[in-house]
């Protein structure tokens, strides 16, 4: 392309930006649009919900660092709720009660996400969140002008998750990386305790009646990889676990992975991650992987192997399996929620899959907001802080373990076609009367509920104004009761009339029969 072509394209881009800014300014200055935004903001404040996404990142930044121009861009509110479906309908009702007739709440493409449209404009996205996660996230939320915004670590988690999925929407990577840099600058990582004891806790057994916790000294990565040297029982155990996972081509993202990244830390900090407290890995078939590890350990004469399944928490923390030797956990196997990036490194004579820093950060930051007893928040923050520092020191290195934006990934990345197929399958499975049907296929228009005509036995009730849902329910219930009472009265009167008629008919029949007998008697005489 010639320099003239480049200049022409620059002119086109400039013209587009100018026109978009003009049209955006018209929308943001529209009184109706201002009122719609105000209704959403009042609703979020009143319901004590938590915003996330681009608007949340923008609004917790200093004004001079914000990337949205409020004069030309309409805020896109995404927020979490422990009862998203009900809140979607409630918000739709709020708009209708404020005089908006074209209002609809619908299920989003992803299960558990609902969109509210007003005058055919998507005004809010509401996402279902596990109640425990919601409570913990709200406890750390940042309040700005009365609205709660997700804490920086959760916003970081979401961006690292996007950057860890090369089979996802990579067109967003440039925008996401810029926002992540802004967030890290103005809300830096805070890890209060990164002492050796905190950074790499050894294995421990629960406190028993006879005394305090007993600790098992975990080996270092060098001890595990240096095969052939005299080895302790702990080294033999850890080596067996590591090799079993390598043989299954699983992706490491826990203590063992951190020990590989530690080589890029300054010498004083490197010692923090010398020991490996346990293994965390990704497996598309976690149950089968746990079974194979159990067999491998039993073949190596280890006894008391216990496998425990832990359910996932929404789409934040995936389903996982804990493997323990006696009461000491040695490994956690997680099912990936997407196709996560990883790199391959040489460890001794073996090639090992190590999760990228973005994959590790997304998985570990999600664990901060659970109530799982085996997640240590201080240690997780310490590990994430060190990973972040490694990223920052090696931002331009795209080779080996430090490759950040690679195309290689592990797991199944759900596509738009997959989502549509799943929804189609659910539509065939569920009946409209099933409570789950509305979760998947919500289509709620307040007009159909507020301005409706109720027909019951020729009794017509018309609600012309826009009362709230409770008022409508009372009116309809009263009407039904009144109609039922009238129906019962009519039915009783009709039954009484029939009874009288039946009695008269019986008397008449008896009289006729008597006259006939008398006539016959006379004939006989």
Which terms summarize this structure?
alpha+beta, 8-stranded mixed beta sheet, 525 residues, globular, 3 domains, Beta Polymerase, domain 2, mRNA processing, 19 helices, transferase
Structure overview:
Residues 501-511 have a biased composition (Basic residues). Residues 39-166 form the Poly(A) polymerase catalytic subunit domain. With 525 residues, the chain is of the alpha+beta class. It folds into three domains: 14-150, Poxvirus poly(A) polymerase, nucleotidyltransferase domain (Beta Polymerase, domain 2); 196-414, Beta Polymerase, domain 2 (2-Layer Sandwich), CATH 3.30.460; 467-525. Helix content is 49%, strand content 17%. The protein has 19 helices and 20 strands. The chain has helices spanning 3-29, 31-47, 54-59, 84-97, 131-139, 152-163, 173-186, 196-199, 221-225, 233-247, 255-261, 267-270, 286-299, 357-367, 377-393, 416-429, 435-441, 446-450, 469-524; strands at residues 50-52, 77-81, 103-107, 113-118, 121-128, 142-144, 147-149, 203-204, 215-216, 251-252, 279-282, 305-310, 320-325, 328-334, 340-347, 350-355, 409-410, 443-444, 453-456, 459-462. Helix 6 (152-163) packs antiparallel against helix 7 and helix 10 (233-247) crosses helix 13 (286-299). Residues 199-215, 453-476 and 516-525 have low confidence and may be disordered.
Task: Provide a count of the helices.
Answer: 19
Sketch the major β-sheet.
Answer: 8 strands, mixed
Based on CA inertia axes, which overall geometry fits? globular
Structural class assignment: alpha+beta
Q: Give me the CATH fold name of the largest domain.
A: Beta Polymerase, domain 2
CATH class descriptor of the largest domain = Alpha Beta
Pfam family, one: Poly_A_pol_cat
Biased composition (Low complexity): 487-500
Region (Disordered): 194-217, 487-511
Main location: virion
């Amino acid at each position: 392309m010639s320099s003239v072509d480049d200049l022409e394209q620059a002119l086109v881009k400039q013209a587009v930006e100018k026109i978009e800014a003009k049209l955006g300014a018209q929308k943001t200055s529209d009184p109706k649009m201002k009122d719609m935004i105000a209704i959403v903001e009042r609703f979020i404040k009143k319901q004590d919900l938590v915003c996330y996404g681009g608007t949340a990142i923008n609004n917790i930044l200093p004004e001079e660092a914000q990337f949205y121009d409020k004069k030309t861009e309409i805020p896109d509110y995404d927020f979490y709720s422990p009862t998203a479906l009900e809140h979607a309908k409630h918000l739709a009702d709020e708009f209708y009660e404020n005089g908006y007739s074209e209002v609809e709440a619908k299920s989003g493409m992803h299960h558990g996400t609902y969109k509210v449209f007003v005058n055919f404009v998507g005004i809010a996205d509401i996402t279902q969140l596990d109640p425990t996660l919601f409570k913990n996230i709200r406890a750390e939320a940042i309040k700005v002008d009365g609205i709660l915004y997700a804490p920086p670590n959760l916003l970081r988690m979401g961006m690292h998750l996007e950057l860890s999925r090369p089979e996802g929407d990579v067109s967003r990577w440039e925008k996401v990386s810029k926002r992540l840099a802004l967030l890290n600058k103005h809300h830096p990582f805070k890890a209060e305790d990164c002492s050796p004891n905190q950074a790499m806790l050894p294995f421990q057994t629960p406190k028993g009646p006879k005394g305090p916790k007993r600790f098992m000294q975990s080996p270092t990565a060098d001890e595990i990889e240096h095969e052939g040297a005299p080895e302790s029982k702990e080294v033999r155990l850890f080596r067996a676990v590591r090799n079993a996972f390598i043989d299954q081509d699983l992706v490491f993202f826990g203590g063992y992975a951190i020990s590989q990244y530690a080589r890029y830390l300054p010498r004083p900090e490197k010692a923090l991650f010398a020991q490996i407290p346990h293994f965390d890995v990704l497996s598309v078939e976690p149950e089968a992987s746990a079974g194979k590890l159990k067999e491998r350990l039993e073949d190596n004469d280890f006894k008391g192997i216990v496998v425990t399944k832990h359910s996932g928490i929404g789409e934040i923390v995936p389903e996982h399996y804990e493997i323990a030797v006696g009461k000491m956990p040695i490994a956690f196997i997680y099912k990936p929620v997407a196709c996560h990036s990883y790199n391959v490194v040489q460890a001794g004579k073996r090639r090992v899959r190590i999760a990228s820093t973005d994959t590790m950060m997304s998985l570990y930051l999600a664990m901060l907001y659970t109530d799982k007893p085996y997640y240590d928040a201080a240690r997780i923050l310490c590990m994430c802080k060190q990973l972040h520092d490694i990223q920052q020191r090696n931002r331009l290195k795209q080779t080996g373990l430090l490759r950040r934006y690679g195309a290689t990934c592990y797991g199944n990345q759900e596509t738009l076609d997959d989502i549509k197929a799943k929804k189609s399958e659910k539509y065939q499975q569920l009946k409209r009367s099933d409570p789950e049907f509305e979760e998947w296929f919500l289509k709620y228009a307040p007009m159909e509920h507020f301005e409706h005509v109720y027909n019951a036995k020729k009794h017509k009730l018309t609600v012309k104004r826009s009362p709230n849902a409770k008022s409508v329910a009372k009116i309809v219930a009263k009407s039904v009761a009144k109609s039922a009472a009238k129906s019962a009265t009519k039915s009783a009167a009709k039954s009484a009339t029939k009874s009288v008629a039946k009695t008269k008919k019986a008397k008449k029949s008896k009289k006729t029969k008597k006259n006939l007998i008398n006539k016959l008697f006379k004939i006989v005489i």
